[in-house]
Design a protein that fits this description.
single chain; alpha+beta; 7-stranded mixed sheet; 5-stranded parallel sheet; about 30% helix
Length: about 525
């Protein structure tokens, strides 16, 4: 017999299956000896009151073993001899596009400018050791994209465009914990996500697809290259430069097929190329601010309303804040409980920060982006790259404030709100180091002043949150793409260029791992329809 129940239990009762089995037996009048297995279908924490509860939806197996999988697997076929589709970028948008193409019977050719997920890790370590950023292998570029080493959070509000459940199930099929199917805010963890990504790549290769690392797209090939890319032209391939991983020798290569363009939100060279090639793009709003880091114990105490913090049975606490200041949103973004602040620049003379958490969320710090909404009309000019140029200028200014290294400018939170220089800084997870800087003075006023007002409101909402125990680390600029590559909402092709499918965060149509994966699957479906209906 199989039964499903909605439960509201104490954290210690939800901690292990044996505790949960005892609770179910007592509450539902079932002999505990007959309960063979309990599967958690949904789990969330209610910490609004002094007594904290865990809300659960469970499936209880009585006198029988589960015969169904904990996740729903996808069948991938051999596509070695199938028609080819080029996928530019091996972030979540590109990887899920490639897997969906295989599912549909097409052969993906994945081109990734960076290195594989393990070789990439060495270059990330060198950022701290040498204070230098490899422009092709960093926290944004390489297998897995920006999400691979920036936490692996899978929460999304985007549920209208495709199956979030499908994306989570594919992650489970490739080695992620099945807890992501039940958790209200699912999270794989920076330490575990690289292995999952590698398994996804191996599925692509095993099924006959191709993955080319250190292969950077130079330009798109049209049906009539001599006349340039004009309205009505058709994309028939990609020219790229491939770097030999041993010798460093570069050679130009070509790939043929329609193109899913999933280059991520930081591929600024791609945006510049598209503008030069007269492929329509437009400025898109972003959010800009800082990374705010508290001691994780303090956040646990605030959110769980108790001096002992999370204790033995609760996870590191999360928070979410949002308000309006002078007509623009001010809000927390990408909250990383028990995590690290990391250097996420993609080129020289930039400082960019982001956050990540290991799977156990066990560090002594918790951080989040604290950002201000920025709209295209807030920036002068009419160039489609004007928001990107604003990003670049702010990141360069931050680098100069940081002594022209990856040392990040920082300021204690209350000092920032009160326009005071911080004469010392708290211990931080940011490995390249911090330097005290008057962020209140040099941040653009439309950002800095709104952050100050926002922090005051958040301090009123949550007593103890506005404190000099917390530190602001500049600057958080890569929240989303500053450019949108315009596409037909029905076919997902570019509005004027056939055979080009702008995809994911880099195209301006997603905001995170799951939504990018959903968009990747949709673009793969549209590429399939294009090949069947139009390409002959």
């Amino acid at each position: 017999m199989i039964q499903e129940f909605q439960l509201r239990v104490l954290p210690q009762q939800a901690a292990t299956e044996s505790f949960l089995k005892t609770y179910v037996a007592n509450e539902k009048g079932i002999d505990a000896r007959s309960i063979t297995h309990i599967r958690i279908l949904k789990r969330s924490i209610d910490a609004r009151q002094r007594t904290i509860f865990v809300n659960l939806k469970v499936r209880v197996y009585v006198n029988e073993q589960p015969t169904d999988e904990a996740y729903t697997p996808t069948v991938y076929q051999d596509v070695s001899d199938a028609r080819e589709v080029i996928v530019v970028g091996a972030g979540p948008g590109g990887l899920f596009a490639a897997l969906k193409l295989i599912e549909l019977g097409l052969k993906p050719l994945v081109l990734e400018r960076g290195k594989d997920v393990h070789e990439r890790k060495k270059d990330l370590s060198n950022i701290t050791k040498t204070q230098r950023v490899d422009p092709e292998s960093n926290y944004c570029f390489g297998e897995g994209g920006a999400g691979a080493y920036s936490d692996g959070k899978l929460y999304t509000r985007s549920k209208k465009r495709g199956s979030v459940e499908k994306i989570l199930n594919v992650f489970c099929q490739h080695g992620a914990s099945t807890s992501i199917l039940s958790d209200a805010h699912p999270h794989i963890g920076t330490d575990k996500l690289p292995r999952v990504i590698e398994n996804m790549r191996n599925t692509i290769l095993r099924c006959g697809g191709e993955v080319h690392f250190q292969t950077k797209m130079l330009r798109l090939i049209t049906s009539s290259p001599a006349s340039g890319i004009e309205e009505g032209r058709k994309i028939i391939g990609v020219e790229a430069v491939k770097t030999d991983p041993v010798t460093g020798e570069k050679r130009e290569v070509e790939f043929t097929g329609p193109v899913i363009l999933a280059t991520g939100h930081s591929a600024r060279d791609v945006y510049r190329y598209l503008q030069e090639a007269r492929i329509e793009i437009e400025a898109k709003g972003i959010a800009v601010g800082v990374r705010l880091e508290h001691p994780s114990m303090l956040i646990d105490q605030i959110q769980y309303h108790r001096k002992e913090g999370r204790g033995k049975y609760l996870p590191a606490a999360e928070y979410s804040f949002v308000t309006q200041v002078d007509g623009r949103g001010v809000y927390s973004f990408c909250m990383c409980p028990g995590g690290f602040v990391i250097p996420a620049a993609t080129d020289k003379e930039q400082i960019v920060v982001n956050g990540m958490s290991p799977s156990n969320r066990g560090t002594q710090w918790s951080n989040s982006g604290m950002v201000v909404e920025l709209r295209p009309e807030d920036i002068a000019g009419d160039s489609p790259l004007k928001v990107m140029h604003f990003q670049e200028e702010l990141e360069r200014n931050c680098w100069q404030q940081g002594n022209m290294r990856q040392t990040a400018p920082a300021q204690r939170m209350a000092d920032f709100v009160n326009n005071k220089l911080s004469y010392d800084l708290p211990k931080s997870s940011y490995a390249p180091g911090l330097i005290s800087s008057p962020l209140h003075f040099w941040l653009p006023s439309m950002i800095g002043s709104r952050l100050q007002q926002g922090f005051k409101k958040f301090g009123q909402m949550s007593h103890g949150f506005l404190t000099n125990e917390a530190v602001l680390i500049a600057t958080e600029t890569r929240t989303s793409s500053p450019v949108r590559i315009v596409r037909n909402p029905e076919t997902l092709q570019h509005l004027t260029v056939r055979g080009l499918f702008p995809c994911g965060e880099g195209a301006g149509y997603a905001g995170g791992i799951v939504s990018a994966g959903v968009d990747g699957e949709r673009c793969a479906e549209m590429a399939y329809s294009y090949l069947i209906d139009f390409a002959g």
